[in-house]
Amino acid sequence: MLEVKGLSKSFGGFLAVNKATLEVNKGEIVAVIGPNGAGKTTLFNLVTGIIKPDNGQVIFKGEEITGLPAYKTCKKGITRSFQVVNIFSRLTVFENVRISVLSQQGKTYRWFTSSKEFANEETVELLESVGLIHRKDNVCGALSHGDQKVLEIAIALAGKPELLILDEPTAGMSPEETARCIDLIKRLSQSLGLTILFCEHDMELVFAIAQKIMVMVRGSTIAQGPPDEVRRNQQVQDAYLGGS
Amino acid sequence: MAKKPLIILLLVAAALLLLPFGLPRFYIYLTALIVTMGLLATSLNFALGYGGIYQLHHGVFYGTGAYATAVMITKLGYSPWLAFIAGPLAAAALSLVMGIICIRLSKLYFGMLQISLGSLVWAIVYRWYSFTGGDDGIHGISIPSLIGSSKGAYYFTMIVAGLAMFFMYRILHSPFGSTLQGIRDNAVRSQAIGVNVRLHQLAALVMAGFFAGVAGVLFVVVDNSVFPDMLFWTLSLEITIMALLGGWFTFLGPMLGAAVIVSLRTFVSTYTEYWTFAMGLLLMLVILFLPEGVLGKVFEIWKRRKSLEVRS
Amino acid sequence: MEFISAFCSPGVLCQILLGLSRTVILFIVASGLSLILGVLRIPNIAHGSLYMIGAFMAYTVSKAFGGGIMGFWMAILLAPLGVALVSFIIERGIFSRLYEREHIMLFLLTFSFSLVFGDLVKMVWGAEYRSVSTPSFFQGSIPIFGLPFPIYNFFLLLMGPIVAILLWIIVNKTKMGKISRAAAVDREMVSAVGINVSLVFCIVFVIGCFLAGLGGALVAPIVNVVLGMDHTLIMEAFLIVIIGGLGNIWGALLGSLIFGLTQSLGILIWPQFGIVFPYAAVIVVLSFRPTGLLRSTW
């Protein structure tokens, strides 16, 4: 479904992503792991179009989408959540998700009818599926960090994606919240058949749900494959897993 | 809408309707002027408060709408009713052109490029004596007799401004308006959910410019004149003060701010020639102590009372 | 061919130099504005009013010393200092408390000061315009390209580069200058190293406003010192700062040159719309280099 070939990006002399490669097949749950600063978030930004790559290709469902701006990649079927919570802080939880649904439905140019008449059922459904329905009228600033991260996922889901990219979805979450998040990811993959690409630092989580792992070090891909294979890979052990 | 604010609004509307029958001509003129400026300030807030766009030279669209109308009537000899339609369209067109040029930039750079483009328009109008009256402006513009009288101009202003406010309200509460506010709060997030941020902002700019043009037309009807100062940056900042004073995250804030500023200016000026000083001080106080504006503060207090009620 | 030789004729060149000598004033004011904008990130609209106050103060000082050469030099010295004092008061009193606010609020705050100052000038000096006479030393003309060129304007032409070089030395060669450039880029880092950023900002602000006052004092002998002289000037100064690059002194010089040249040429080519040319030039520059011609500190 998603193919990344030789993607590179530097910021004023600093090579953040260096000929990275990645392959994600339909329906898979793929994890990208690597030390801090390895370029995982930059990679996600390049794929989704938040920034433009210097070199390389991004191919989605057979179509080249390299360098397409973020709003276009979203329409193609890729949505994402952000590592640092990036929501519409002044609006309520309900409104946050509703905007995303409205965008997905292509209704953002409707200028006369009240937005309260649109997308209500879909928004309720989404909030129920992620377990945030009881908080729907809270202003986002008042939510707990864990709930905000789940809201991030809900906003991304509203886009009806085929590929869902999650940037450190459980960062900063308590153990219970993490467990619930893992459940959610599993459910999304099974019931909706979503292809999921995520990056994480929590190795237990990664090895628990990922069907394939890609390892990034200093911007390059050093390994890619099923979890066991990656765990046994010498390079990966030296670079990241601390040898064993 | 909740009951209490609705009652207040209806009372205000009734008062506005009956006003011309009780007050001398000057006050009718003044109220019409206040509503015109309020409409202008609201159109600014459309872009600034709701869209988060650094619209630093909004006045140029107001002036363009007014001048387009004035020139069409006086120099080109068109029917005033046609001119009234041309004014906002000219303002919207200018908005589109300026928007396309400026939209690539963000925040302060956008504002400054808009100021330079606006200054260009001002400079041209200021110098084109034969067409725009130069630094004299155009006076004694003939208005159809139906709306030419003091009362006629007043009711025309009320109806047109009322309609404009109604449309702006609907737009801001529509999906487009929600998207715009989303862009204001988080442009990156909006992109990530599939919103073409630039296009939406451009649309918002054109709308804001259009309604500013409407305010320009109303000024011509009320005052029968135009002058280059309408296009100068100081007016744009005065409108911003009105929006800020009233509360620029609220819909009716700017109208309230306009009412305060125009009224104060009229009355303070009868006592002293230093109104500018007073306005400067007022602005300073608002920035220091009341950045959410009067209406913003009112809403804040109301919300706090409500949450206290809920808890008890 | 004829057009070019007509263009390079002494008359035209003199006109251009004359225009440039007036643009030196713009440069001096704009450099101060650029400094403040680059380091403190405040778009200081009150800069124009401070320029105006500088001009009025120069009038008063010059008159107090009986006009003449003594009056002139005292005015050039004391008026900018007076303006610097005023700016010191408002910076310490109000601005320093508000650096955390969003730009647009600071922008509006400086606008409020410009409104207040505008009327303060009216209160102190009245509404009629004032004249400052050119001291005898500067009266008369010297031949340039065979045509008489006013000595005072020649003096202004010299002042431009002098101020530019002095500023460049201060910003790039002194410790204060280096600290302020660092603070422009990363406020927190500089204060984490133990430097009193607030003091640095104060000094930069005062220097910037001193320049505004200097511009006003220098322009006083050749224009009518009048209310409202701040309005067009501040707009032009802003545009120059933007096309030059925020916080860049050489950018301000380049911007002023472009502004002055296009204005002089504009007036020669199409006198009625001469003043439109600089604005058009600004738009052209900004369309290709939106962040300014030279590097900005933002």
Written account of the structure:
The complex is a heterotrimer of chains A (244), B (312) and C (298). Chain A is an alpha/beta fold. Chain A has nine helices and ten strands. A six-stranded mixed β-sheet of chain A has the order 6-7-8-3-9-10, with helices on both faces. A four-stranded antiparallel β-sheet of chain A has the order 2-1-4-5, with helices on one face. In chain A, β4 and β5 form a beta hairpin. In chain A, α3 (93-104) crosses α4. Chain A is globular and about 55 Å long. Chain B has a domain at 28-232. In chain B, 78% of the residues lie in helices and 0% in strands. Chain B is globular. By secondary structure, chain C is mainly α. Classes of the chains: A alpha/beta (244), B mainly alpha (312), C mainly alpha (298). At the B-C interface, α5, α12 and α14 of B face α5, α10 and α12 of C.
Task: Give a summary of the structure in a few sentences.
The complex is a heterotrimer of chains A (244), B (312) and C (298). In chain B, 78% of the residues lie in helices and 0% in strands.
Kindly list the characteristics that best describe this protein.
heterotrimer, A: 244 residues, alpha/beta, 6-stranded mixed β-sheet, 9 helices, 37% helix, B: 312 residues, mainly alpha, 15 helices, 0% strand, globular
Layout of secondary structure:
The complex is a heterotrimer of chains A (244), B (312) and C (298).
Chain A: E1 2-11, E2 14-24, E3 29-33, H1 40-48, E4 55-60, E5 63-64, H2 70-76, E6 78-81, H3 93-104, H4 120-130, H5 145-157, E7 163-167, H6 175-192, E8 195-199, H7 203-209, E9 212-217, E10 220-225, H8 227-232, H9 234-241
Parallel strand pairs in A: 3-8, 3-9, 6-7, 7-8
Antiparallel strand pairs in A: 1-2, 1-4, 4-5, 9-10
Helix pairs in contact in A: 3-4, 3-5
Chain B: H1 3-18, H2 25-48, H3 59-74, H4 80-102, H5 107-127, H6 129-132, H7 145-148, H8 150-172, H9 175-185, H10 187-192, H11 197-223, H12 233-246, H13 253-271, H14 275-289, H15 293-311
Chain C: H1 2-7, H2 10-40, H3 46-64, H4 68-93, H5 103-125, E1 141-144, E2 147-150, H6 151-173, H7 175-185, H8 187-192, H9 197-219, H10 229-244, H11 249-269, H12 276-288
